[in-house]
Structures are given as structure tokens and as C-alpha cells.
Amino acid sequence: MSLEPMDPVEKSPESITDQYLTFLLDGVEYGIDILKVKEIKSWSAVTPIPSTTTTVLGVINLRGSIVPVIDARMRFYVDGRDQDDTTAVIIVNSHNHGVDRFVGLLVDEVADVHNLRAVDIQNGDDVVGSVSADLISGLGKAEDKMVIIIELEKVVATCLWEDDTQNGVAA
């Protein structure tokens, strides 16, 4: 008896789904590709590093690895607030300039995991008047709400490898 290869199942855009971990910044839900998420940590103090961009809070020691922590509120121009019990740091794997590295994103709260079909995500270029439009890859329709899908690599790059005058963050 011989085994013949099975025909691959063709998937339509309606059937292709990706998972997104979502988080809140001032009540607005943002999403990142869950495959980029390494872990989620509760807030703990960071070690400030002098002469970094204003969006970099400092670094944490993650089991022997030094990980920079980015303030997502500042990057997306959301008013600051004090850290509390819901504040979290999402550790993501970012790839920039040919280098993979772990980076922490400080967020108000981790919200949910959504399965979004490709047809449920609209292009982020349609965001009118947003100063952060280049950091948004799309707007996803999740159940009865909208999720802003961020361009993780661009967010990290503008925080770690460009100075504040280039990325428009007020000092």
C-alpha cells in the first residue's frame, strides 16, 4: 500500500485567521501579532539609562538578559498615568537591522486574544488625522469593537534606533 501526498487545502481570505494579543492604552485597544509575544510581566521598576530617547523608560533584567522597556503611552501620544495593578510589560521579539532582540512594551492593561480574519482587517493608511498612522498596520474588527493593529517593528525602531526629533515625540 502506498501513501499518496494529500492535496493541500486551499484557504480563502475568509478562512485565514491570525491571533492578536491586545492591550489597552487609555481605554483604546491595540493589537500585536501573538507570534511576536514572548511573555507578559507585571510592572516592576526599570533601571533608567541616561541619554536614551524619551520613549525608553529604561531596562529590566529578564533572567540574565537586559531588555529595554518602551513606554507605549508616550509612543502613541496618550497622556501618562501612574502604574497600578493592571499595568503590564509585554515582552516581544523584535527584528530590526538584521538583529532579533527582546523588547518590553509598557501598557495600561493586557486585554484579550482575538482571532482576526484577513478580511476583517482594513488598511491603516485610512486612519485620518492620526500622527501615528505609520505605526498602524490596520484596523481589525473583533466582535463588536475595533482593534488598532500596530506595526511592532516600526514602533520599536522609532523608539530604540531613532532620536526623538525624527519620530516626532515631544521631549
Written description of the protein model:
- A hairpin with a 2-residue loop joins β4 and β5.
- A six-stranded mixed β-sheet has the order 8-1-2-11-10-9, with no helix packed on it.
- With 171 residues, the chain is mainly beta.
- The chain is 10% helix and 46% strand.
- It is built from three helices and eleven strands; from the N terminus they run βββββαββββββαα.
Query: What is the overall shape?
Result: globular
The largest sheet is: 6 strands, mixed
| Topology order in helix (H) and strand (E) letters | EEEEEHEEEEEEHH
Total helical segments = 3
Give start-end ranges of low-pLDDT stretches: 164-171
How many strand segments?
11
Rg from alpha-carbon coordinates? 18 Å
Mean pLDDT: 85
How widely separated are the two ends?
A: 71 Å
Strand content is over 45%
Helix content: under 10%
Going across the biggest sheet, name each strand in turn.
8-1-2-11-10-9
Find the structural class using helix and strand composition. mainly beta
Describe how the helices and strands are arranged.
Blueprint: E1 17-25, E2 28-33, E3 37-42, E4 56-62, E5 65-71, H1 72-75, E6 88-96, E7 99-107, E8 109-117, E9 121-123, E10 136-142, E11 145-150, H2 152-160, H3 164-167
Keywords:
171 residues, mainly beta, six-stranded mixed beta sheet, five-stranded mixed beta sheet, 46% strand, globular, disordered C terminus
